[in-house]
Amino acid sequence: MTQRAASRIPPGLGRALSAVEETAESTKLWWGAAAAMAWRGGTRGRGAAVGGLAALVLAQVASNGVGKRLADRPRPPREWVPHDEVDDRPDSSSFPSGHTAAAVAFTAAVAPTWPAAGALCAVPAALLAVERVQSGAHYPSDVATGAAIGLACAWLVRHAPRPVPRDRPWGSRARP
């Protein structure tokens, strides 16, 4: 499946996928999206941004800090990838895809708070997942596991206990 994905993507689409990956490198796409949401989205935008970034950080720790250290899986063989994208891949473990985990975590955490922003984030998140296989950086199972980690982290952030109840305004005190 990895060989087919790497060889069947038309060159124009491959360049577009590479551009998305470059923008998402070091999670800068998601931090930029969070900044835009916080700036233009009012209270809802700030809530979506905070939730998305919290899930992203948790997914990065789970995938890159724990998963890659436990699995230590080699990247797909270079000869499987018939283009020069293979030269730009990291040397770290292939399993799981940290890029995909971060993208899915951010998107899945944003979507319940601001569905339109979540739908917009889903487009580059999906393209990024395809790019990770097409570029030879990951096997499909690495990407699928990264997506599952991202979904789990978004769920955990969404269901984490809140220090202040949501229905209580900031700074108000309970009256006896």
UniProtKB/TrEMBL annotation:
Gene3D superfamilies: Phosphatidic acid phosphatase type 2/haloperoxidase. It is a multi-pass membrane protein. Residues 67-98 are annotated as: Disordered. The keyword Oxidoreductase does not apply. Pfam families: PAP2. Residues 69-91 have a biased composition (Basic and acidic residues). Its main location: membrane. It is found in: Cell membrane. Residues 50-158 form the Phosphatidic acid phosphatase type 2/haloperoxidase domain. Keywords: Cell membrane, Hydrolase, Membrane, Transmembrane, Transmembrane helix. This is Phosphatase PAP2 family protein. It comes from Streptomyces bullii. The lineage of its organism: Bacteria, Bacillati, Actinomycetota, Actinomycetes, Kitasatosporales.
